[in-house]
Specification:
By secondary structure, this protein is of the alpha/beta class. Helix content is 22%, strand content 26%. The chain has helices spanning 22-35, 53-66, 80-86, 126-135, 156-159, 166-173, and strands at residues 2-6, 40-44, 70-73, 100-104, 107-112, 122-123, 141-146, 163-164, 179-184, 191-195, 198-202, 209-210, 219-220, 225-230, 238-243. It has a six-stranded mixed beta sheet with strand order 4-5-7-9-11-10, covered by helices on one side. It has a five-stranded mixed beta sheet with strand order 3-2-1-14-15, with no helix packed on it. The radius of gyration is 17 Å and the shape is globular. 42% of the residues are buried.
């Protein structure tokens, strides 16, 4: 199975403060993603910068045009109800939260809505654990997906708006050895670490990246990117980071 993860699209009618046109970036991301023939396109939050229905409708049209199966998750810039309404064919399985389970062969993705409306940071509460408990399969390979990382990534400004309640999530994971990976967005940078004994990853943004530096939170015009997750029977997950802009492929001479 192959999963391409896009994150932090920040779609809106005009260019972002970084000068990046998010729609142009999305077109490049979808084109690059399609070249890998993924079984699923995973969009891990902050899909819209403005939370407007028109933005989600335009995104839905773009996804349908490219013809890739997809699953979406809200981030702190998203409007939960509007996202659920526009993407009504997604398998939402919580009465209020935008949570869903996506099954691919013998793999399940648990997409957990960690958004606190009106706040930049997220939080895992008991209702999230209850949803996970009721939707986590016992005999399949599982990955947990949420927008806000429940772990520190080493950038002070982002750690201040990460996901509270990580201890609840870690305690739940301690009882679920079938959950193999934790996949996140929010950070606008690819970071790899360990959380509750699992490999934990954040995806780059399709637009600007957050600068890796001490001091005040800052962005950088480093190239947008995506993650390609490959899951093969009997093997651990493997993940490739790729920039959105494809480069020439040159075969070594014999």
């Amino acid at each position: 199975m192959r999963i391409v993860q896009l994150s932090d699209l920040h779609l809106r009618p005009q260019a972002l403060y970084s000068g990046v046109d998010p729609w142009s970036a999305l077109t490049g991301a979808l084109s690059r993603a399609r070249s890998f023939a993924p079984d699923l396109l995973l969009l891990s939050g902050d899909l819209a910068d403005d939370g407007e229905a028109a933005t989600y409708c335009r995104l839905l049209e773009a996804l349908e045009e490219y013809g890739l199966p997809y699953a979406v998750l809200p981030g702190n810039h998203d409007e939960r109800k509007t996202l659920r309404d526009v993407f009504s064919r997604q398998a939402w399985s919580h009465p209020q939260l935008a949570c869903q389970r996506a099954d691919l062969g013998n793999i399940s993705l648990l997409l957990l809505d960690s958004v606190i409306p009106g706040e930049e940071g997220g939080k895992v509460r008991q209702q999230h654990i209850d949803w996970l408990e009721s939707h986590c399969p016992s005999v399949r390979r599982v990955a947990l997906v949420l927008h806000h990382p429940p772990f520190r990534i080493g950038i002070e400004g982002m750690d201040a708006i990460a996901c509270q309640g990580g201890e609840l999530l870690a305690a739940w994971l301690a009882t679920k050895p079938q959950v193999e990976r934790v996949l996140c967005g929010h950070v606008h940078r690819h970071v790899t670490t360990d959380f509750a004994g699992r490999l934990a990853l954040t995806a780059p943004s399709t637009v600007h990246q957050i600068a890796l530096q001490d001091g005040p939170l800052a962005y950088t015009p480093e190239a947008g990117g995506l993650l390609v997750h490959d899951v093969l029977p009997g093997e651990p997950w493997r993940t490739h980071y790729l920039p959105l802009a494809a480069a020439p492929v040159i075969v070594y001479p014999e």
